[in-house]
Design goal:
The chain is an alpha+beta fold and 250 residues long. The strands form 3 sheets. Strands 1-3-5-6-7-8 form a 6-stranded mixed beta sheet, sandwiched between helices. The protein folds into 2 domains: 212 residues, tt1808, chain A (Alpha-Beta Complex), CATH 3.90.1570; 32 residues. A hairpin with a 2-residue loop joins β10 and β11. The protein contains 7 helices and 11 strands. The N terminus is likely disordered.
């Protein structure tokens, strides 16, 4: 079985394997672990980036499930991904890792960030929202994600700071990162698209998830509104038949 589809039992096995080290090595491991910076209190770039990150995570948690693993996934924003004990974390705007059970607490150091050696694999997908040219999203950062064996990399550049192309959807192949013209992430049964509308009180062109038919995955608020509209249509049909829907509630 590939590292990309580790079941929870194998992930737990890899986590527990740390505990099987000799006392001396284990002590050195935890000293190095404690030295890692998992929180630095740096703010997000701007209000648009904050809403964009929230929109992506909201829709995944509300409206998406993996064909094989269902709701066993982690969608996290601005969480550090550690790939080595002697290196600082890389912090994508959003990461998606499937087939894992997120930690139920965040007390221990290894529970506060995404440690690849704890979860047993890298995230399947990372998303970067470009707000300046310092992030080097299509250069050094892309190389690092590729080396980490992240399968899909999405870069949204709403201001076209990196060039004429505003959305880059890339797959990690033997030839390196390759563009995906259809914007369909086959291994996740998930697509990406651009959507003009209002989210969080802000009108903008947003990066959204979509299904195979191109329909955007609704957020929690959007899903509630769809349910409200469906209930109103049903009530109208009942009234047309001479039935008071309020009586059915009793």
């Amino acid at each position: 079985m590939s590292a990309q589809t580790l079941p929870a039992a194998q992930t737990e096995e890899r986590t527990s394997s740390v505990q099987q080290l000799s006392p001396e090595v284990l002590a050195e491991y935890y000293r190095a672990l404690e030295a890692l910076v998992t929180e630095d209190d740096e703010p997000v770039d701007n209000l648009f980036s904050e809403r964009q990150q929230r929109l992506l995570a909201d829709a995944l948690e509300t409206s998406w499930s993996h064909p094989r693993f269902g709701k066993r996934f982690l969608a996290a924003v601005n969480v550090g991904v550690f790939y080595a004990l002697d290196q600082p974390a890389v912090v994508p705007d959003l990461l998606l890792s499937i087939g894992i059970e997120p930690h139920r607490s965040a007390v221990k150091k290894e529970e506060k960030s995404y440690f690849i050696w704890v979860y047993g694999k890298p995230p399947e997908l990372v998303v970067e929202i470009v707000s300046n040219t310092r992030g080097n999203e299509l250069g050094q950062k892309a190389d690092l994600y590729g080396w980490m064996r992240v399968r899909y990399y999405v870069v949204y550049d709403p201001q076209r700071l990196l060039g004429a192309e505003g959305l880059h959807v890339l797959e990690n192949t033997l030839m390196g990162w390759q563009p995906m013209p259809g914007r369909w992430l086959q291994g996740l049964n998930l697509g990406v698209t651009l959507w003009q509308g209002v989210y969080g009180g802000m009108e903008a062109t947003w990066l959204r998830w979509c299904d195979a038919a191109g329909r955007v995955l609704p957020t929690g608020q959007e899903r509630a509104e769809l349910e409200r509209q469906r209930a109103e249509r049903l009530a109208a049909k009942l009234r047309a038949l001479g039935v008071n829907p309020d009586d059915l509630a009793d």
